[in-house]
Design a protein that fits this description.
The chain has 18 helices and 14 strands. By secondary structure, the protein is of the alpha/beta class.
């Protein structure tokens, strides 16, 4: 993993321009099965011939898809040029389009508005709806919103597409002179199959550039997860105005093997300020980016549950299964729980899903008939809070839902694959949760431990997601507004 990260970083350093920075393949997010899946074949002796730039027809189809798709932006009708702060967020559900609270930045834009700071929210469209459809849904909310297009303009942006293809060809030619892993990464990153990734990053960057030219804000704030498009936005903002304050907000979990958000790409591509969700992630990023251009501060998170009280009187033996929102993680955790359910018929297992998943989808992926499941497996459609109230243990891997369970007295059990690549963000809370690799190990934890959570574990959770401090953001913005 370390060699893979080092090699991808060297490719970025070897030709640091916006077209290479825009390639998601070169930004390894973290040591997680979902993040590492695109790189597996690099270590399996697979040939790269089928993924190279050898198919002009395939290449043309991909380019035409991005050039001739609907090209527009959905926005509020009361647009104005006096914008102080631009937020770059995400639209994952059409229902969130007109909410007073942003899905990622909570009520921060609304708070700034109440302090006479004009904000604009740019939404990256992750829905299946077109901009034309979304334009009919967006209302005149308090904070102005713009939903970005997913496509380029044929007339205006052809040069950008051409420059990207030229950079990919340079990388392809360079790969012929190299050996080993570096050769494979150069070849794969310049593959026509991966063209959509950098094109998407550049589409976001191009539209952000146009918005910056129109509104000339004093600050731009993005989510900060280690994506290629984030670095493209920072680079474009720096090029537009070197005085603009570029802020990244780390809101998601950070694991021990987090990489792309925890390494510097230089002053032009790094944020000026990184806000963290809590003290633990703040310390991790500050240590990892020691010597970098970025400064650090704790902003907190709406995920903070510090007001909840722990309940230590759970005596029942029910285990809640909490997978992340991927089919592979569902298969791993649910498959393990089936083995445990057969071994421990006196223990109930509650299956619940990430909101973006469906049981029909998961069961089909696992090739399982719902009627053939062990009788002590319960498929839940209840709220997370209701399921937690019924449970005394929770089996998890990388989900933040485990924090609410911990606050309510549920004892956490981490399922390790034994690969040495842990994705547990509670990795520093050693000895405060169960860690199992087998059904025998799970049975031992269930039978030997009375559900309880120590003050140390509760305190750890309190420091991971601290309460959101709106005033912290305002004070930083006052330096430039």
């Amino acid at each position: 993993y370390r060699l893979l990260c080092k090699t991808c970083d060297s490719v970025l350093e070897g030709g640091k321009n916006i077209y290479r920075i825009a390639m998601p393949f070169l930004h390894i997010m973290r040591g997680h099965p979902d993040s590492l899946r695109p790189y597996q074949s690099l270590f399996e002796g697979a040939s790269d011939n089928n993924s190279s730039l050898h198919s002009p027809l395939s290449l043309h189809k991909k380019i035409l898809k991005f050039l001739f798709s609907s090209n527009c932006q959905a926005s509020n009708s009361n647009s104005c040029k006096d914008i102080d702060v631009v937020f770059v967020s995400h639209l994952v559900n059409v229902e969130h389009l007109n909410s007073d609270s942003d899905f990622y930045f909570s009520d921060l834009p609304k708070y700034l508005k109440s302090r006479q700071v004009n904000c604009l929210i740019i939404l990256i469209n992750h829905t299946n709806e077109s901009c034309k459809t979304l334009s009919k849904c967006i209302n005149n909310s308090t904070t102005q919103r713009i939903v970005l297009s997913k496509s380029f303009s044929l007339t205006r942006d052809f040069l950008t597409v051409f420059s990207l293809i030229r950079e990919m060809l340079v990388m392809k030619l360079t790969s012929f002179k190299e050996n080993g892993l570096l050769k494979k990464i150069l070849s794969r990153a310049s593959s026509v199959k991966l063209l959509g990734g950098p094109l998407s990053s550049l589409i976001i960057g191009k539209q952000v550039d146009n918005i910056l030219k129109l509104h000339n804000p004093k600050a731009i704030i993005t989510t900060y997860e280690g994506h290629a498009w984030e670095r493209v936005v920072y680079s474009i903002a720096n090029q537009h105005n070197k005085k603009i304050l570029r802020i990244g907000y780390q809101h998601a979990v950070v694991t021990k093997n987090t990489h792309s958000m925890a390494r510097s790409l230089g002053e032009k591509c790094d944020p000026d300020l990184i806000f963290s969700s809590g003290k633990i992630t703040h310390n991790f990023l500050k240590k990892s980016l020691n010597g970098a251009h970025s400064k650090f501060s704790v902003l907190g998170s709406e995920k903070s549950l510090g007001s909840l009280e722990a309940h230590n009187d759970k005596q029942n033996k029910t285990c809640l299964i909490l997978p992340e929102g991927s089919l592979e993680e569902c298969n791993l955790l649910f498959g393990f729980s089936i083995k445990c359910a057969n071994k421990l018929p006196n223990i109930d297992f509650i299956w619940r899903l990430h909101p973006k998943m469906s049981f029909e989808q998961v069961l089909e992926y696992m090739s399982i008939d719902r009627n053939n499941l062990p009788k002590n497996i319960i498929i839940s459609n209840l709220s997370l809070t209701k399921d937690i109230e019924k449970s005394s243990f929770a089996l998890y891997r990388g989900t933040t839902a485990i924090i609410e369970a911990i606050y309510k007295g549920v004892f956490p059990i981490y399922l390790s694959t034994g690969s040495g690549m842990a994705i547990d963000f509670l990795y520093d809370a050693e000895g405060e949760r169960g860690v199992v690799e087998s059904t025998e190990g799970f049975a031992k934890v269930i039978n030997d431990d009375v559900p309880h959570n120590s003050d140390k574990l509760i305190n750890y959770c309190n420091q991971y997601f601290q309460p959101l401090e709106h005033e912290v953001l305002l004070q930083e913005l006052k330096r430039v507004i």
